[in-house]
TrEMBL record:
This is Orotidine 5'-phosphate decarboxylase. The gene is pyrF. The active site is at 95 (proton donor). It catalyses: orotidine 5'-phosphate + H(+) = UMP + CO2. Gene3D superfamilies: Aldolase class I. Pathway: Pyrimidine metabolism; UMP biosynthesis via de novo pathway; UMP from orotate: step 2/2. SMART domains: OMPdecase. Its EC number is 4.1.1.23. NCBIfam families: pyrF_sub2. Belongs to the OMP decarboxylase family. Type 2 subfamily. It comes from Roseateles oligotrophus. InterPro entries: Aldolase_TIM, OMPdecase_AS, OMPdecase_type-2, OMPdeCOase_dom, RibuloseP-bd_barrel. Keywords: Decarboxylase, Lyase, Pyrimidine biosynthesis.
Length: 281
């Protein structure tokens, strides 16, 4: 199964558009684990076990592991997810972007070392910085398009020529990702939940691509507006040809409780968020 098929299967099996982001921050761990970077694996594995029947993807953010010299725990976590939730694809959030020869190493890191099913990439350096990832035909490559942070507007919202009516940078990227760049049908796009009207625009320009949508929960993105803007595209395509949405939440799920009931609390938030998203379809 390739990444897109994995997403579709998980969406159906778990009746979910929710992705749980794994951004472990030891200072927020419960009880005696607080401040202990040696517990990163245990914390994330408990979250995975508590939510694996509610998600269409997991998304570990590599910086939260690397900052604590915990890459070995990330490897163990990836293996754990494959073991207990083989039906849920894993997106390694690394936001890599570099020249081809270096990108080859990053692709190896994501897909061979960590066994990720997809990786997030910065497309700023152009197609040759993306191409090495496309040599893994079953894997997904999800390009930053219209990110959730306020500063995303600095570049992504600029018009290609300073004239009204010219496409903005993110619109140009969405068009390329839907067409010339999508050699093997592996590409997806990141669009922030904090900008629902731009989700709708990206969906219009890229109707078949999966959209990774972070920004609900801690960043205050509107979950309902996100689904209305992005879910299964506009009316132009039959439902089975439209791309899925992967609505990602990290802190709101991970730190729903600071006590020893953190995994049960994470499950409750994941259940509520899944229901909220599903109601908005
Ligand atoms: O690629 C991402 O996942 C991403 C893109 C984006 O535009 N905004 C964004 O917040 N993210 C990531 O999504 C996660 C958001 O975390 P919460 O705000 O806690 O849900 C973090 O790991 C971010 O690095």
């Amino acid at each position: 199964m390739n990444f897109i098929q994995q997403l579709q299967a998980a969406e159906t099996l778990n009746d979910s558009m929710l992705c749980v982001g794994l951004d472990p921050e030891p200072s927020k761990f419960p009880g005696s684990w607080k401040g202990d970077a040696g517990r990163i694996y245990d914390f994330c594995a408990a979250i995975v076990d508590a939510t694996k029947d509610l998600t269409l993807a997991f998304k570990p953010q590599i910086a939260y592991f690397a900052a604590h010299r915990a890459e070995d725990q990330l490897e163990r976590l990836m293996a754990h997810i494959k073991r207990v939730a083989p039906h849920v694809p894993v997106i390694l959030d690394a936001k890599r972007g570099d020249i081809g020869s270096t990108a080859e190493q990053y692709a190896k890191e994501a897909f061979e070392r960590y066994q990720a099913d997809a990786v997030t990439l910065s497309p700023f350096m152009g197609f040759d910085s993306i191409e090495p990832y496309l040599r893994y035909p079953d894997k997904g490559a999800i390009l930053l398009c219209r990110t959730s942070n306020p500063g995303g507007s600095d570049w992504q919202n600029q018009r290609l020529a300073d004239v009204d009516g010219q496409p903005r940078l993110y619109e140009h990227l969405a068009r390329l990702a839907q067409s010339d760049w999508n050699k093997n049908g592996q590409l997806g796009l990141v669009v922030g939940a904090t900008f629902p009207s731009e989700i709708a625009r990206v969906r219009e320009l890229a109707p078949t691509l999966p959209l990774l949508i972070p920004g609900v929960g801690a960043q205050g993105g509107d979950a309902e507006a996100t689904v209305k803007a992005g879910w299964r595209g506009g009316p132009a395509l039959p439902a089975d040809q439209r791309g899925p949405i992967i609505v990602s939440s990290s802190r709101a799920v991970l730190y729903a409780s600071s006590g020893n009931d953190f995994a049960a609390a994470a499950r409750r938030v994941a259940l509520d968020t899944r229901a909220l998203l599903n109601r908005a379809r």
